[in-house]
Amino acid sequence: MRFIIVDNRTGRARSIGANGLVLGLAFAGLVALPPTTGFLGYQFGVHDAEMNQEVILSWRSTLREQSDQIDDLQEVAQDNLDAASLELARLQARVVRLEALGQRLTEVGDLQEGEFDFVNPPALGGPLTSEDMVDADVAYQPPSYMDELSQLAARVIDREQQLGVLERLLVDRQMLDNTFVAGRPVIKGYQSSDYGWRTDPISGRRAWHNGVDFAGKAGSDVVSVAAGVVVYASPRYGYGNMVEVYHGGGYSTRYGHHDKILVKPGDIVKRGQVVGTMGSSGRSTGPHVHFEVFKNGRIVDPSSYVRRVSR
Asked: What are the helix (H) ranges across the chain?
């Protein structure tokens, strides 16, 4: 197949075969290819650069956000660490105070050595588990900060529990000591009559005396021989103005012939507290106090209690 090409300027015609036309077009394409390729490459390069710039900006933004988050986490972690440090210091100070107080109370209470221990750490222990045996092969690692905090908190709990038991023990002992019936019902004066058979000072006949008498100056103090609760504070036949105090454990004491009564029923009195003033009310020949001791509702000889030394 052949193609005829006419030149417009000269009017001359040329005949070209198919192979020649193809070669010509191919040559023209080769001539035009480099500029075209360069242009397209430039366009694609610009586009890729823009895309890379956007990616970089996006990464930078993400990195800034992550950096800010890390800063926030570090700040929170530091705050938590500071708070934990304060808590650790507070617990350490608390342990020191508790141990000092416990040791002092143990010494003051004269408790058996070893019954309470506020010096050494609490005793701990137990058999190894299979997991512990595996961990035993791992290199030693010091306890973490939180472990130390937990151990200190456990030590505080142990000391507080010991103090609670010690406090109850000392309170019970103090109550027993305070309610222990012992001593004289007067600060100044002398024992003028014993318990038992005697010659009645008014009738002159032989009669039984249920208590002991202490004579002294009118208006002088009459005191309770133990802590307790006032259950009676009024005139009573034969006793005159009388006060009765219940001390617990089945014990009660009576104080008769007061000039003035200084307590009322329901009052809580301490050992040595003034309950009245010495007088001669009731069946009496002069200023004195009639003192009686009851145990489980039955009157007993006060002499042994008078001779007792208070705890």
From this structure: 18-108, 130-135, 145-178, 303-307
Q: How far apart are CA 11 and CA 32, in angstroms?
A: 28
- Structural domain spans, the chain: 2-81, 84-120+142-178, 190-307
Phi, psi of 142 (to 5 degrees): -65, 150
In this structure, the number of other CB atoms found within 10 A of the CB of residue 233 comes to: 22
Confidence class for position 82, pLDDT limits 50, 70, 90: confident
Q: Look at residues 106, 111, 102, 114 and name the one whose alpha carbon lies nearest to residue 156.
A: 102
Quickly count helices (H) and strands (E) in the chain.
Answer: 4, 14
Closest CA to 230 of 212, 259, 255: 255
Distance, in Å, from the CA atom of 234 to the CA atom of 6, rounded to the nearest integer, reads 157
Which residue shows structure tokens 């012992």?
182
What digits encode the pLDDT tens for the residues 157-181?
777 777 677 667 666 666 777 788 9
CB atoms inside a 10 Å sphere around CB 4: 8
More confident residue, 25 or 244: 244
Work out the pLDDT band at 124, boundaries 50, 70, 90: very low
Contact criterion met (CB below 8 Å) for 207 and 197: yes
Q: Which two tokens stand for residue 135?
A: 């961990």
Is 262 in contact with 275 (CB distance < 8 Å)? Answer: yes
Which H or E element spans position 213?
strand 212-215
Dig out the tokens for 284 from the structure: 């009496």
CA 136 to chain centre: 35
Q: Out of 2.70.70.10, 3.30.930.10, 3.40.50.720, 1.10.3730.10, which CATH number does the structure's domain 190-307 have?
A: 2.70.70.10
* Token couple for 260: 């003035």
- The pLDDT assigned to 33 comes to 53
- Is residue 24 helix, strand or coil? helix
Local structure of residue 195 (DSSP, 8 states): S
| Cα gap 242→237, rounded to integer Å | 9
